[in-house]
Amino acid sequence: MSSIQEFPSRGSDVMILITRVNLHPLCVLVEFWGKFSQERTADYQSLAKDIQSPGKIFQENEGNPGDQCLAQMDGTWYRSRIVSRNGSKYTVFLTDMGMTYNTTTRNLAWGRKEHFILPPEVEFCVLANVLPVSMQNRWSPMALEFLKTLTGKSLKAYVQDVMVLHRMFLLHIPCISKQMYEMGFARNLSADRFQEFVLMSLKSNSETEVSTDTKQSSMGACERLHKQEMFMYPELQARTVEAVIVTEVTSPQRIFCQLKVFSQELKKLSEQLTQCCDGRMTTCIVGPEMIGYPCAARGADGKWYRSVLQQVFPSNKVVEVLNVDFGTKQIVQVENVRPLSADLFRMPVVTYMCSLHGIEDRGVGWTNAQIDYLKTLLLYKTVIAKFEYQSISEGVYYVTLYGEESVNINNLFGSKQSCLLECEKSLQDYAIQSTLYGRQHSAQPDRHQMKGGGKERDGKESTKALPVEDLSLNSSHVAAVHHVSNPSEFWIQTVSYIESPNDFWCQLVHSAGHLKMLMHDMQAHYSGSVFEPLVGTACVARHPDNKMWYRALVIHKHETPHVDVLFIDYGQTETISLFDLRSICKEFLTLPGQAFRCSLLNPVDPTSAINDWNEEAIARFHTFVENAASNFVILKCTIYAVMYNKQKIVFNVVDLETPFESICTSMVNLVKSVPPKKASWSSFSLDTYYYSTHNVKTGTEEEVTVTHVNNVNHFYCQLERNVEVIEDLKMKVNSLCGQLETIKLPSIFGTLCFAKYTDGQWYRGQIKATKPSILVHFVDYGDTIEVNKSDLLPVPREANYIMSVPVQALVCALSDVPNNVCSEVNNWFETNATECKFQALVVAREPDGKLLVELYQRNIQVNAKIKKMFRIEIISVLKSQQVKNEAKIRNAPLELYKPPHQRQSCVKEPSNAQDGSEESRAQVKSKNKNVPKETQQFSNPQLSNLAPQTNTDKLPNLADLPSKTITPGLVADVYISHCNSPLSFFVQFVSEEDEIFSIVEKLNDPLLGQKTDITDVQSGNLVQAEFTDDSSWYRAVVREMHAKGMVLVEFVDFGNTAIIPLSKIGRLHERFLQLPIYSTHCMLSNAAPLRKEEFLNGEVVSAFKTAVGSNGEKQLTCRFVRQSRSVWEVSLEEEGMEVVCKVPVKSLTDDSGNANDKCEQVKEELDQKLLQNPCCLYFSHQDLQEGQQLDVYITAPNDDQTFWCQAADSKELDKITLSLSEFDKVEDPRHIDTTTFPLGSPCIALFSKDQHWYRAEVIDKDGDELSVLFVDYGNQSKVKAADVKEITPVLMESPTQAFLCELEGFDSSNGSWDYSAAEELSALTTDKLLQLTITRVIREAQKIRCFVQIECEGQVINEVMKCWWKSCMTEPDPVALITKVDSSITYYLGSAF
């Protein structure tokens, strides 16, 4: 019998109830806790009841590690033992549950002695005779998922051994072991060999520790790393809240958090490590077979760390280790590695790899600037972490972090970097609730609802109006095909309408806020509206149940006054009265349709298009969706294919997942028990091939062949285990193509094709571009090449097998290798990796499905070899400032929809955004008058432009406007509409507020304010001009003519100026010439004697603007004193107090005499200096020629669809960066004098975001604030004069490293970009190496602009972007606009949202 009383002995058969499994990939033994006997259940129930009346509650500093006590968890007391203590925080082990628990003093109490007589209710057990199959002895994610299912099961077991000393049972459970062997993630050991392995893991300290004498006598002896022990990783319960220290930040998805409660224990552990390792002068033997072994390693700081061996470089005698208590990686000499003694494993690892909850990279990865910013928020700081849940497959905990004053760091980072995954729960207020929750799970839908694939009806059917075009790839074949490279993953908020698992609608989470605002505005706009005839196909319809207004499409007209409509933002169809329809306003057309149609992936046969699901499966699907919706759980949607039926209605074949469940996986058993009946395949066609993850999980190893390389961060691999599938597919494709070549085929076909490669063989392909040449992407290999039309064949719809085989090429990237490596690195990798076999360790999976891998070939780790060969670590340090300074001061993402208060209803005063001055956004006050909704202007100017007309009549001038009568002594209430300084500002009369509203309304009324294009314009002409910030029209006068068709205009009713293209001005209708100018140019009377604006420094100007309310927010009393030319001297009062301008005395005089004389003297000196050295006026530019080809990155996009590029391998930039790094060492750098520093002057400016100095050019001045252009990167910034210094001659030698570009083929005089064009261009090119060809170079006034053609990853960007270019001759199609479901759904079939 076992010496553990009342429990089974060795060799006995028992039943055990598994209560908890210890899940961790690095825990080699399968450890679990279970109950052996139910005979004493009554005793434990009695004990559980008894301890609910505990003894004395703990006081401060009471209790020590090892003490038995009672701990309260969720209101219930449990027997426990103290593991550690830090102040009032404790970690205890719940003896009857087999788990650790973190708690505080107030939740601990002493128990009575009799409470601890009964042995633990659960016992610690190990599953016998199974170990991981991987070389690293770690469990795969699939194995962990399987082990997770064991909890709660009662199983028959054989007691193979009882380890009395450790109170551990080795249990052989045949039904589990057999499954693990058959599923391929466990290897079978004999009982003797497994016993030997366990005994080695449990060796006592005496066998591994040596005395001091022995140490001294064995100096110089060799030691080997061993794997007798493994680190223990305590599992954290979901929603645990802990104070943590952030020890490492690699990305928002890889943050290491160390539990602060164990700080003292870790400090003691560090001292113990130092004492144990420093005195051992031994040579440690390590080899590649020891990867994954625990060890002690001394870092660069001289300290010893508990570590795990990651890589071995025998020739260099160095290894890479992961410091498990800090999450950091280091390269250390072999001589600084030691085996760990057993006692150093007792302390569990309390540093967890975490991912920020609710943060996503939107499929474009993380930039260095974003990661650096995150590091400033977190690294080495103590924060509060809420561990939301653990993702076993990813090996991370999703956390929400809180900083000082409970600031939510996730939200702070997400908002700042525009990567927050929002869940607008209040949007549910607008949801059509009756569709999802009110209906029964019946096979018979409501008779008014349109059936799944679009039921054919008698009479005319408006199928062309269905919202399918932008869900398919038809409208953007070139772009869409390129991104069909792996499964798309994006986030949806609710599934919005369900017909069946074959036909349901989803909404994207990231647009929820826009949809909520649009719904709110539509309810207000259409409230009380009346029916008007001639409602178009795109309309607004009132739902018969909740009486709310929704965007809709008319899809069928009845003989009675009823129509069938599709609610395009939710997916439901309904029959409604014709009188419940309204014409849709253009302002409600910009947001794309928010619902997209889906069909659930068949988990048993993914190739089936539509399935006859049984009732149990349908009920399970509804329950899954309803539970997610009721708990506000965000679902992840993965698209595996896109298909369409005969009516061209598009369905996305998808799987839906919560963090804990995949609905397809959950329904496997249901499908197996009652196989679904397949619908006719011929009724559906695939618009993409099927995609699959091929069951590749993070942390697993795969043997792969690299088939094609774009660069180290984008290459394609095939799995060696799929080689037979690939060969069989190749054989079948060539056999079929041989038959197709003998028959006559249609000349036009879709994006899927068979294409002949350079080897003369046929392969599956997808057409990416048709103009100027045909580009085909070979989906199973990754190549994209130009193909002759004669080498293309259509894919027959009957080729079911060929269509259904998943795409075989997986997109990969080398982990820990920077994105911006030089071309030599990519060329070397392409030459040496293509068509070669490797062992690939999957480190992570990016949201777009790309696999981050470490490649091995025998003992060579390719990632490390590349970094060493090309000295990437050193290069990355030199480039770090460049990367940060890409400063990529990116423009904020384009808004799809804006609430009314941000649109023209507030009549924003236009400001000069071009010259960089402070934006003056005075608003015509609406407190006395509401602007009619019909005049609200939307942000997209194309919706309000009518067909252009020409008029050769002479344009009016400013003098043609009637004058306003103002006499000295006049007192009036005014607003300040625009303010430059106390010597120059503009006022509007409060009494004229309604007239100002009226003129702005009429100018922006499509019927009254129709724009007429003009081409012959001169300075002084009076026109109407569009202000860029709000896309609205105002009266303006042309002040200056600039190059490239640009003009400087002054908005005469407000006073501010802006530089705009000639295409943004039009002829002013005669009716607007009958009204006077509504702004009056003024100067403050008590500042008028100065007469020199340069004497008013920034503080004075800023104080004055604040005092008068420069944006029109204050009502002032104005007294007109006298008129000097066109400017009135005035005095201002606010509530009886006069507004004065106080100018510091030092601004007026100094030791050298009168300020005017001083200013003239400085000016003369400057002029003389420039005459002596004219070249110091400007930076020189690169010698760029037409036809020149360069590898570049886009460093800064502009609003006007121009962008700045920088050569990828610029040695000059390294030289500049090095010179700038020495700039801070200059003892007395000279600051500039803003009063004498002309625009266009070169300088050195401090970039506030990274506090580094960069070469710059002054482009605008406003007091002591300057706007500068960073000439080597292209981004602009406002800086204080104190942060601008004179440039040195050395830094003037190199030409500017950034050059301004514009895509060739897009003439702004003949069209304009779609509102989403900038976003699409950014998505195509951000952080990607581009091949640029210069087609034209325009040089004007020391400035250059290059018209270019760009290629990226095999596609011509100019061709792709044609989809977002619109001719100004074309009136927008409301149906096309309202049915334009967000292109990210199909365009980014490889991206996460």
UniProtKB/TrEMBL annotation:
InterPro entries: SNase_OB-fold_sf (IPR035437), Tudor (IPR002999), Tudor_domain_containing (IPR050621)
SUPFAM superfamilies named among the record's database cross-references: Tudor/PWWP/MBT
SMART domains linked to this entry: TUDOR (SM00333)
Bias (Polar residues) ranges: 933-954
Any one Pfam family match given in the protein's UniProt record, by short name: TUDOR
Superkingdom of the source species: Eukaryota
Location of the Tudor domain: 62-118, 288-347, 532-591, 746-802, 1016-1075, 1236-1294
PANTHER family: TUDOR DOMAIN CONTAINING PROTEIN (PTHR22948), TUDOR DOMAIN-CONTAINING PROTEIN 6 (PTHR22948:SF15)
Region named Disordered: 439-463, 900-959
Protein name: Tudor domain containing 6
Biased composition (Basic and acidic residues): 444-463
Signal peptide: none
